[in-house]
Amino acid sequence: MAIILITGGTGLTGRFLCKKLIDKGYVVAILGRASQKNLAIPTYSWDIDKKTIEKGALEKADYIIHLAGANISEGRWTAKRKKQIIDSRVASAQLIFEKIKENKNQLKAFISASAIGYYGTITTDKIFSETDPPSDDFLGDTCRQWEQSADSFKKLGIRTVKIRTGIVLTKQGGALAKMITPIKLGIGSAIGSGKQYLPWIHIDDLCDIYIKAIEDIHMNGAYNAVAPEHITNRDFTETLARILKKPFWLPNIPAIVMKIIFGKMSAMLLKGSRVSSEKTINAGYRFSFPKLEGALVDLIVDKTK
Fold first, then answer.
1. Helix, strand, or coil here: 23?
2. Across the chain, what does the average pLDDT equal?
3. At a CB cut-off of 8 Å and minimum separation 6, what does 303 contact?
4. Strand partners, 115
5. Is the pTM of the predicted complex or chain greater than 0.70?
6. Quick check: 103 and 59 in contact, CB under 8 A?
7. If you average pLDDT over residues 261-287, what whole number do you get?
8. Packing angle of the helix pair 12-23, 203-215 (nearest 10 deg)
9. In whole angstroms, what is the distance from residue 131 CA to residue 122 CA?
């Protein structure tokens, strides 16, 4: 079976994806900070600053899935933090590219994470698709550089796929846990205008899209990994409150409060556009969770009761 090397394999998406790949019979290895070969999933070390990758990591890999990157929602967006966010994505991909080029390893595909931040933080009724240009704000520029580093692999004749991901919903941690907390405390309400869209995806669908990108040789370029249903922040919060059987309050949390707490990063919460999943569906992918209510029920309702 094919060997899949994953960067960022210990992160939220990486853990789920590793398990799914192993369950399907793939051989999985992780590229991380420390070498650990005695684990169920062996880890090879790399040092981006020193431009080193442990011998044996790349040589046998049939596919590389590049998930590594500093968490964009942690910490204020200072100049230093912005540089960390970009470098953790771009410099890491460039390092892999240079090592693959040197060793002439014939990868079958390089599959990179990206984000719907490519389209920027703007509230509009326009539906963005993969043919739209990147925004000129920080998120758009980050994703543009991120994807350009992935596109380098095309120069080596390697099939390249970029997965532009929305808000990932999981049972363990991530955005959903943060959204649930105030609602469970009985103080759930929409943020800002509440009219901003919140493109989301169930973790199972996201992982299955990555697996399809491995197995479908016709997949090339960018694909939006978002559920086909367009949901506003208000709709999302209200649906979540209803499923949790908790009150949904008015008025909304004022935008100024979010700006004081999060600074420029508040744009991620206060603005959001509709993003199309049509290209992904046309590629033959069928969502297991196309509707928010079904996804939330799967993730938070105790089915043993």
1. helix
2. 87
3. none
4. 165
5. yes
6. yes
7. 78
8. 60
9. 17
